[in-house]
């Protein structure tokens, strides 16, 4: 994990820890990380929080720029299956990434991002 994140790396099991206990500890760490809130603003540079990337873009560590902040999160109405990880996902940010010489925008769950300097 890059050194500019406010979160420590997630510790994997040592040889003595029960795998079920490792999984429980990891889940608790990720849930706490998801709950860590940030106030985002247009023009801010952001990256994925460690362990919370759920989309193909941007890559981990790849900076994105906030191009919009929804006052109230929206949901993608095309995700109609409760079996989808995107079902009723609260999309609260619009971010832009540099892709093939263009700025491409994505709607994302802001809980999964953190600001970086820049």
Topology:
Blueprint lengths: L18 H17 L9 E4 L15 E11 L16 E9 L2 E7 L4 E3 L3
Antiparallel strand pairs: 1-2, 1-5, 2-3, 3-4
Mind explaining what this structure looks like?
With 118 residues, the protein is an alpha+beta fold. The mean pLDDT is 88. It has 1 helix and 5 strands; from the N terminus they run αβββββ. A hairpin with a 2-residue loop joins β3 (91-99) and β4. It is globular, with a radius of gyration of 16 Å. Helix content is 14%, strand content 29%. It has one domain (19-115).
Uncertain parts: none
Q: Which word captures the global form?
A: globular
Mean residue pLDDT: 88
Number of DSSP strand runs: 5
Percent strand: 25-35%
Helix count from the secondary structure assignment? 1
The helix-strand sequence is HEEEEE
> Helical percent range?
10-25%
Major beta sheet, strand line-up? 4-3-2-1-5
End-to-end separation in angstroms reads: 18 Å
Biggest sheet descriptor? 5 strands, antiparallel
| Computed structural class | alpha+beta
Radius of gyration: 16 Å
Number of domains: 1
